[in-house]
Design a protein that fits this description.
Blueprint (H helix, E strand, L loop, with lengths): L2 H15 L4 E5 L1 H8 L4 H5 L3 E6 L5 H6 L3 E10 L3 H12 L3 E8 L5 H10 L5 E6 L5 E4 L2 E3 L15 H17 L5 E4 L4 H16 L1 H4 L10 E6 L14 H8 L6 E3 L12 E3 L6 H6 L4 H18 L9 H10 L1 H6 L1 H19 L2 H13 L3 H12 L6 H14 L8 H11 L3 H14 L14 H14 L11 H10 L13 H8 L8 E7 L2 E2 H13 L4 E6 L2 E2 L1 H6 L1 H4 L7
Helix pairs in contact: 5-6, 7-8, 12-15, 13-15, 16-17, 16-18, 17-18, 18-19, 18-20
C-alpha cells in the first residue's frame, strides 16, 4: 500500500523493458507524476539520454528538429484525445528509431486504431497500459491535482472532472492491485455518483480488476465529500509539510520563496520531496518546535566538524551562520534549504500573529466557551497585524461553530471585517461557506461533543501537557471515521455499500474488518488528514490506509473553491 513505490515500479519497468539507448517522452501531467517520485538523475542512470515533452509543433519546427534514429523512444502519456493527436503527428514523422508506448490508464480501442493507421513507418514496437495516473505525494497520500471543490450536486460537476476522478480511482486501485468493496457518504449526491460511476467502470473492465490480488477480506474504497468537514482546511497547521503548504504553498513538491525577503537567488524555488530529501523525509510530520531543534542539531554537527564556535540559539542565528559560511551552503544544501524555509515560516508567524490566531481557531474548533471566543475575536479583528485572509478564516470558523446559536455575534464580526478592508465578495463568502458546508449539508455533527465535561477535560489536559497542545487540539473528522473502521463499526446507514446487501456481505466476510483501505475525498483532502492517516498506519499492525483527494487544500485553495462549488461564476 505504498503509492510512491507503485509509481516508481511502473516507471522502472517501462525503462528496463526497452534495451539500449533511450529517450523518454512525457505529457504535462505525466511529467509531474514522474517528478514526484523520481529525480532526473534517477532516470538518466537507466540509459535514458534525454527527456522531452510531447507538445504541439509546427511543420517548420518538426523539419528543423534533429532526428535520432539510434534512440528508442519510451512514451509515457495519459490516454487523451489531445495526446493521441500529438502522438500521431510524431509517428507520421518519427524522430526516433522505435516507439514503445505506455499509457497511464485504460486506453480506448479507437485510440489504438488511430495510432495503427498513423504508423506508416512501422516504428511502434509495443503499446501497454501502466496505471500510474495519480500524483503520489507521500507513501500513503495521493492527489489528482484537480483544483476544485465538490459541487452541491453531481449535475454541476464538469464531465472532464468526473472522468478524471474515475480514471484516477481506477489507476490507484489497479496500481495497488486491489479489487475493493465501494462505500460512500450517503448524504452527498456527489460522493454517491462518483461511487456509482467507478462501480460501473469496474463492472465494464471486470476482467482487468479480477487480476487483483485475492485477500480473505476484500479491501475497501471509501468515498467522502469535503463538505462533511469544512473546519480542517481552515485551520493553521503546525507540522512541517502542512505549514509550508498553508503559508507558502506546495505544488508537485515545489515551493516558491520569490516573495520572501532577503532570500538568495538559488533558494527562490526549492523542492521538498520526501523521496529525494532525507531530512524532509524524516521531518515532514514533525511539529514546528521539534523541527527547529532538529535543524539546529545538524548545524551544530557541522560546527563541531569544522571547529566553529559561533553561538547559535535561534532561527535567526542559524540563518546568519548559513550566510557567513558559504562552504556550508555548498556542502549541506538540503540543510541550508531547510534553514531558509524555517526562517521564512518564523517570519510569517510573527508578523501575522499566527500563534494568537491559531489559539482562537482551536477554541472555535474544539471548545465551547462562546464568551471567550467573542473576546478573542474582537481583539484579533481589530488588530492591523492580522491579515484580511486570516480574519476571514476566523469569522468563517465562528460562523460554522455557532451557526445554530440563536443570538450570535456574526453580524458584528462581519461589520468588523468590512471595516478592516474586506471587500463585498469576501464578506459574502462567509455565508457561502455556511451554505456549502453548514450543518444541513453534513452527515456528521462536528461539534456534538462540545459540552461542559469535555471542555473541562480539555482544560485539564492542556494544563498537564503544556502550551504546545493549545495549538494542536483539533482532530479532523476523518479521525473518528478511521476509529469506526478499525472497530468494524462504520454505519451502513450513513456510509452505504454499492450493491446493497450483497456488497455489504462481501465486505464483512467472517465479520472481519477491512485490512486495506483507500479513502478518497471528492473536493480535496488536507495535510492534517494525511497526518492522521500516517499516525494510524504507524500504530496499527493489521490495517493500512491510503488517503487521496481531488486536490490537497490549504485554506486559500479551499476558500477560492467555495463559490464555484455553489455554481457562482462571478467572483467579484
Amino acid at each position: 500500500m505504498n503509492v510512491s513505490q507503485a509509481i516508481r515500479d511502473y516507471i522502472f519497468r517501462m525503462i528496463n523493458d526497452v534495451s539500449g539507448m533511450k529517450v523518454m517522452l512525457f505529457d504535462k501531467e505525466t511529467t509531474g507524476i514522474v517528478s514526484m517520485v523520481l529525480s532526473q538523475s534517477d532516470i538518466l542512470t537507466k540509459d535514458v539520454f534525454l527527456t522531452e515533452l510531447l507538445s504541439p509543433s509546427t511543420k517548420e519546427q518538426r523539419e528543423k528538429s534533429s532526428k535520432m534514429p539510434h534512440l528508442k523512444a519510451v512514451v509515457f502519456i495519459r490516454p487523451t484525445s489531445e495526446n493521441i493527436q500529438l502522438l500521431r503527428n510524431e509517428i507520421k514523422e518519427p524522430h526516433y528509431g522505435e516507439y514503445h508506448i505506455f499509457f497511464s490508464n485504460i486506453v480506448k480501442s479507437s485510440f489504438i486504431e488511430e495510432l495503427a493507421r498513423a504508423d506508416e513507418n512501422e516504428v511502434i514496437r509495443q503499446v501497454q497500459e501502466y496505471y500510474a495516473d495519480f500524483f503520489a505525494v507521500n507513501s500513503s497520500l495521493f492527489s489528482l491535482n484537480l483544483n476544485s471543490l465538490a459541487p452541491l450536486s453531481m449535475k454541476d460537476i464538469k464531465s472532464d472532472d468526473a472522468d478524471r476522478i474515475v480514471d484516477g480511482l481506477g489507476a490507484i486501485v489497479l496500481a495497488l492491485k486491489k479489487k475493493p468493496i465501494i462505500r460512500y457518504q450517503k448524504n452527498s449526491s456527489t460522493a454517491e455518483n462518483v461511487a456509482k460511476l467507478f462501480a460501473g467502470r469496474m463492472e465494464r473492465e471486470k476482467e482487468l480488476f479480477h487480476q487483483s490480488r485475492k485477500t480473505d477480506t476484500p479491501p475497501l474504497l471509501l468515498i467522502l465529500d469535503r463538505r462533511d468537514d469544512p473546519v480542517t482546511p481552515l485551520l493553521t497547521q503546525w507540522t512541517y509539510q502542512a505549514m509550508v503548504h498553508e503559508f507558502l504553498g506546495i505544488y508537485n513538491h515545489r515551493v516558491s520563496l520569490k516573495n520572501a525577503p532577503d532570500v538568495k537567488a538559488d533558494m527562490q524555488e526549492i523542492v521538498l520531496n520526501p523521496n529525494q530529501d532525507d531530512f524532509f523525509s524524516n521531518n515532514f510530520l514533525t511539529n514546528f518546535g521539534d523541527l527547529g531543534i532538529n535543524i539546529k542539531e545538524l548545524v551544530d554537527q557541522y560546527q563541531s566538524k569544522h571547529q566553529s564556535h559561533q553561538n547559535i540559539e535561534s532561527i535567526a542565528d542559524m540563518q546568519r551562520f548559513v550566510e557567513n559560511y558559504p562552504e556550508f551552503r555548498k556542502l549541506s544544501g538540503n540543510v541550508s534549504k531547510h534553514v531558509t524555509v524555517m526562517g521564512e515560516l518564523s517570519r510569517l508567524i510573527e508578523v501575522g500573529k499566527l500563534m494568537e490566531c491559531s489559539e482562537l481557531e482551536q477554541e472555535l474548533a474544539c471548545g465551547d466557551n462562546h464568551g471567550e471566543s467573542v473576546r478573542l475575536m474582537q481583539s484579533l479583528l481589530s488588530d492591523q497585524s492580522v491579515s484580511i485572509q486570516n480574519k476571514l478564516r476566523l469569522v468563517m470558523l465562528y460562523a460554522l461553530r455557532y451557526e445554530d446559536k440563536g443570538e450570535n455575534n456574526l453580524p458584528t464580526f462581519l461589520e468588523q471585517l468590512r471595516s478592516s478592508g474586506a471587500d463585498a465578495s469576501q464578506i459574502r463568502s462567509v455565508n457561502d461557506l455556511v451554505e456549502y458546508a453548514g450543518a444541513k449539508n453534513r452527515s456528521s455533527d462536528l461539534y456534538a461533543s462540545k459540552n461542559f465535561f469535555t471542555s473541562l477535560k480539555k482544560t485539564v489536559q492542556r494544563e498537564l501537557q503544556g502550551v504546545s497542545n493549545v495549538y494542536t487540539q483539533h482532530k479532523p473528522y476523518l479521525d473518528a471515521i478511521i476509529d469506526q473502521l478499525s472497530k468494524n463499526k462504520l454505519r451502513e446507514q450513513v456510509y452505504p455499500t454499492i450493491g446493497g446487501a450483497i456488497g455489504q456481505a462481501a465486505g464483512q466476510q467472517q465479520n472481519n474488518r477491512p485490512q486495506e483501505i483507500i479513502i478518497f475525498y471528492v473536493g480535496g483532502t488536507t495535510y492534517e488528514e494525511a497526518l492522521t492517516v500516517e499516525l494510524f498506519n504507524k500504530s496499527s499492525a493489521g490495517m493500512k490506509i491510503v488517503l487521496g483527494g481531488t486536490t490537497i487544500h490549504n485554506s486559500k485553495s479551499f476558500l477560492s473553491g467555495i463559490k464555484p462549488a455553489l455554481g457562482v461564476t462571478d467572483l467579484t
